[in-house]
Amino acid sequence: MIKFIPLGGAEEIGASCFYLNIDGTGILLDCGIHPQKTGIESLPDFDVLKDLNLDYVILSHAHQDHIGALPFLVSRFPHVRIIATPQTIEIADLTLHNAVNILNDQLSETDSYTHEDVDLLLRSVYELKYLDTMYIKGMRHYSDLPIRLNFYDAGHIIGSASVLLEYKHDRILYTGDIKLSKQKLLAGAILPEQRVTTLITETTYGSTDTKKMGNLKSETRRFVKSANKILAEGGSILIPVFALGKMQEIFSIISGEIEKGRLTDVPIYTGGIGEKISKVYDNNRYKVNYVNPDFRLSDIKKESYFGINDLSGFGKTPSIVIASSGMILPGTFSYKFAKFWLKQKSFGIFIVGYMDEETPGFRIAQSSRGDIVMLNDGEEIKVECTVEKFFFPTHSNREEIIEIFMQLNPSNVIMVHGEEESKNWIGHRMLEINPSIRLYASRKLNPIVLRSDAD
Ligand SMILES: [Zn+2]
Ligand SMILES: [Zn+2]
After folding, report:
1. How confident is the model at residue 442 (pLDDT cuts 50, 70, 90)?
2. 2-208+394-451: what fold?
């Protein structure tokens, strides 16, 4: 019997967590939190696990919406074994510890977890490198045959993996977050060569017209043109980014353009956990699918924005500030800078990533000069600066998801990690290509039986 139950992350981007039962072995694919929610609200629905076998958690990558709920899971189910790539483990060490400090401000002591909990959790993680094989079998597995597990580089962030599970005649591939074509640093996803029987795929950009997204080259050109204009007029540029993935890609784009003499050479400011994550990129550049392993992020000259309280200096010396959080959440550096930036006529805020609708980042991204934006502390600010949007996606566009589908030629497709509209476009296209597939738009807690005992 093979059964699939989404505990979160089915209809939305957040709290990715999918339960898979293969002949009695219970597996969770990812264990994330919803970054815009707090406390119990932010977690996948772990209650259903009470009546199910649970043996393993397999992690696709280290973004919070895929690993953030691990400490909560492990405190309830301490026996689970966690499997991840070495790079994901390295990043998880940084980000889960970092989250302890943030959570302690948000939650009561009983809902929270400690640094010791994180250390303990990390000790129960098993490392699996790309293309190495692991055989797994749960406590109540009811056949002699184990399940074969492999990771494939998913090209999304450092250490990101698509998960291939093989058992009897079934080959199940969970894409995780996947970027098929190359970014500036990461060279794109590597897919299994043989066909799969079931494809569990993300659908992030299903509703986004690929033509509107441009490509790496054209977006870089547009970015450089706008940046040079602002810097020439004496303004500074703020780029809010996720510290994991987007920050490293943007750094390598900017340094590449400065080196080629196309982008004005100005001081670059950054800080926080992103710098530590960049080191993980550098240390693993020969171990993952990398565009240019000779390039090191640590060679880029950067200044730290820690301790700068008077931001008026950015009006005297044009600079580029790369700050997290990506969605300009309250209490972060990007929020503090954005409040100042919005009021400066010659300055620019460059939006380069995904914005959740409930965030200040979304409201700022939607605004243009002269608009009033409401920030989370209630302050209404008139937008004086330039606000521009660029596409540097870390996810596959919808045509690439279709390409993955065509290459892997599955009989079953389960669509996750995307909104209704996104699944509609992708599902429709897949059915046009192959009307005989069994296609599922996953819904939270709705089980999908991929193989019954009678099959
Ligand atoms: Zn991700
Ligand atoms: Zn994700």
Report:
1. very high
2. Metallo-beta-lactamase; Chain A (3.60.15)
Average pLDDT over residues 341-351: 98
Task: Report the pLDDT value the prediction gives residue 112, as an integer from 0 to 100.
Answer: 77
Topology of the domain covering 215-389 = Rossmann fold (3.40.50)
Rounded distance from Cα 14 to ligand 1 centre (Å): 10
Residues 6+ apart with CB under 8 A from 65: 9, 13, 14, 15, 16, 32, 33, 34, 35
Q: How far is the CA of 30 from the centre of ligand 2 (A)?
A: 10
Q: Report the candidate in 404, 282, 274 with the shortest Cα–Cα distance to residue 334.
A: 274
Question: Could you tell me the pTM of the whole model?
Answer: 0.96
Are 3 and 21 in contact by the 8 Å Cβ rule? The answer is yes
Ligand approaching nearest to the C-alpha of 178: 1
- Per-residue model confidence as pLDDT tens digits over 278-309: 999 999 999 999 999 999 999 999 999 998 99
Compute the distance between CA of residue 389 and CA of residue 404 in angstroms, rounded to an integer: 28
Res 40: pLDDT: 86
- Ligand 2 midpoint to CA 65 (Å): 6
Determine the 3-state secondary structure of 290 from DSSP.
strand
What are the residue ranges spanned by the domains of the chain?
2-208+394-451, 215-389
Ligand with the closest atom to the CA of 63: 1
Interval between CA 222 and ligand 2 midpoint (Å): 27
- How far is ligand 1, taken at its centre, from the CA of residue 395, in Å? 8
